[in-house]
Write a structure and sequence with these properties.
This protein is of the alpha+beta class. It is built from seven helices and twelve strands. About 20% of the residues lie in helices and about 20% in strands. The structure holds succinic acid (SIN) and manganese (II) ion. The site of manganese (II) ion (MN) has 3 residues, from loops.
Length: about 280
């Protein structure tokens, strides 16, 4: 691992320096190098990914072509390697520093973005789903992403508008209908496909990008990318011959526990039990 710094906001492991924490709050994202996780842990994760992606069930979402796996949700609940990694000081400790709170995993997923066939994620912010569908009161969550392949300019890297998280939730339009090709699926599927359900106004996206620019963090397998639930982000289809697998864990602060909602999403999409991850002090 790259090195533990003494800067800490809560007791326990603190893998981020004070400068990294400040960069995250300024930009809304932070990329850590490929050696952030121990090499044996990364190797186990990469080995586990095909097994996770092969598990059929409602937690597995296909691309619009109906055959390519797009995402598998909830692997921290079902896969022992992901469960262990999600509770590691390198990731949970970093999330705790960024949120300045004890943390638990609200959601996890593997997004494959398969070679040739992996589809886009349109411009969006994540928090609107976690607020409106899961009852989470504040945007005090963080996405922690581990690259399972090299991510480069060819295979559909995540793209951010730096600083856009500081504008809060942006104006947009919520679509009620199910996206084409998913008409027979349960309605929670509408937020998981290549057609974005909550469309941020393009004039707003253009204005923010003109001011803040665009950044696509890239790096080898093992790189860890953290991003804020309100940072505006998107990713292009993968036309390259190389998969772009990513494990994403969404940590929430325990002080930000979800409130009751009328129709809770399935537990592989939204954790209802708030149990802090114990980290050694
Ligand atoms: C992606 O995997 O490119 C998108 C992930 C996200 O929007 O959270
Ligand atoms: Mn997102």
């Amino acid at each position: 691992m790259a090195g533990i710094d003494a800067a800490r906001t809560t007791a326990g492991p603190a893998p981020l320096t004070a400068g990294m924490v400040a960069d995250y709050h300024r930009d809304g994202f932070l990329l850590l190098p490929g050696d952030h996780l121990p090499a044996d842990v990364l190797a186990e994760l990469i080995e586990a990914a095909p097994l996770i992606l092969a598990q059929e069930g409602p937690q597995r979402v296909l691309e619009r072509d109906g055959v390519t796996v797009r995402s598998v949700y909830g692997p921290h609940r079902t896969d022992p390697v992901v469960a262990r990694v999600s509770r590691s000081p390198e990731l949970a400790g970093a999330a705790r520093q960024l949120l300045d709170d004890e943390v638990y995993v609200h959601q996890s997923k593997v997004n494959l973005k398969a070679a040739f066939a992996g589809d886009q994620w349109e411009w969006h912010q994540d928090y609107i789903n976690w607020r409106d569908r899961d009852g989470i009161p504040r945007p005090d969550l963080v996405n922690v992403t581990v690259f399972l392949n090299e991510v480069n300019e060819f295979n559909g890297p995540l793209t951010f508008i730096p600083g856009s998280h500081r504008h809060g939730l942006l104006d947009g339009t919520d679509t009620d209908s199910m996206p084409a090709g998913y008409e027979d699926e349960p309605n929670w599927m509408a937020t998981l496909t290549a057609t974005e359900k909550f469309q941020v106004d393009r004039t707003v996206i253009r204005r923010l990008a003109e001011a803040g620019g665009l950044v696509s963090p890239k790096g080898p397998a093992g790189s860890v990318l953290m991003f804020h639930p309100n940072v505006l982000h998107a990713s292009s289809p993968n036309l390259s011959p190389f998969d772009r697998g990513m494990l994403l864990m969404v940590y929430n602060g325990v002080r930000n526990a979800p409130r009751p909602v009328e129709n809770p999403r399935p537990d592989f999409l939204a954790e209802r039990a708030v149990v802090p991850i114990p980290l050694a002090v």
